[in-house]
Design a protein that fits this description.
The protein is globular and about 45 Å long. By secondary structure, the protein is of the alpha/beta class. Helix 9 links the parallel strand 6 and strand 7. The strands form two sheets. Strands 4-5-6-7-8 form a five-stranded parallel β-sheet. Strands 1-2-3 form a three-stranded parallel β-sheet. It has one domain: Metal-dependent hydrolases (TIM Barrel), CATH 3.20.20.140.
């Protein structure tokens, strides 16, 4: 079994605009390998042998909770097709400035969703801001998994202040018990060698969804090779990485004895599958 712990798609009506806008922001630093629609995402999964994918939503405005939640519920209820219901695991999102933040977090947990997605640059907040820690304490108390963009974002190439390893470590030290997945190999890109190492003692998970694999390559490979097997999750950030290449990259640099845990076992444990 292969589970992608970090993927994206968009409603058909906005997918072309969303992909085009992000590609403009990336200015050639990365390109999409798909059109951003749900059906195209599922086709790519089928072709590559991906059994399930965590679908990461991002609320870029406080008002978006409702529409994102309805989409997540529709996927889970089968309203968007049997394939989507069977293969996608929605992680809803809330904006940290949502005036009904705590109630919406409770709603996510009460409706049985397993986790929640954040992107500090798109949502304009800092992980090490004490004003945000009550939100994360609530998430920890509810038993939700956090999947969070960390480190360099190719669309924000000059910003390194919101969600690097230092900010993740500060958050985790102040919110014990939070299940936190630091995307993009712990956010190592753009930071010095061994910047992520302090996350080990804090029980942090990392995922393998590195985009700029030629940037900080030595550090990325060190982490891919050495991070504890029970704390690393296969992920792609689809549609920004090709599934077959992502699978090959992990298999090339990780011992085959680790593949079952990395590709699905750890994800199954976190998701209760």
């Amino acid at each position: 079994m292969i589970i992608d712990f970090h993927s994206h798609n968009f409603p058909d009506v906005i997918a072309p605009r969303a992909i085009a806008g992000m590609c403009r922001a990336l200015e050639g630093r990365a390109t999409a390998c798909a059109d951003g629609t749900l059906s195209n995402h599922l086709d790519h999964m089928d072709h590559a042998g991906i059994d399930k994918a965590v679908l990461c939503q991002i609320a870029t405005k406080p008002t978006q909770f409702g529409v994102l939640m309805r989409t997540a519920e529709a996927i889970r209820a089968g309203e968007l097709g049997e394939r989507a219901q069977r293969k996608l695991i929605p992680f809803p999102s809330v904006h940290p400035d949502d005036p009904e933040l705590m109630a919406h977090l409770e709603e996510i947990a009460a409706k049985g969703f397993k986790g929640i997605k954040f992107h500090p640059y798109y949502q304009d907040f800092l992980l090490d801001d004490p004003a945000r820690w009550p939100m994360f304490r609530k998430i920890a108390d509810l038993g939700l998994v956090v999947e969070c963009h960390c480190g360099l974002d190719l669309g924000y190439p000059t910003r390194f202040d919101a969600c690097g390893p230092k900010e993740v470590a500060t958050l985790l030290r102040n919110v014990p018990g939070l299940t936190f997945v630091a995307a993009h190999l712990g956010g190592c890109s753009g930071y010095g060698p061994h910047a992520t190492d302090e996350l080990l003692e804090l029980g942090c998970y990392i995922d393998t969804s590195a985009l700029a694999r030629d940037f900080c390559r030595d550090e990325q490979l060190r982490l891919l090779n050495s991070w504890p097997t029970d704390r690393i999750l296969f992920a792609t950030d689809f549609p920004w990485n090709v599934y077959s290449e992502s699978i090959r990259w992990v298999r090339e640099f990780r011992d085959p004895a680790d593949w079952d845990a990395l590709f699905s076992g750890n994800a199954c444990r976190l998701l209760g599958l």
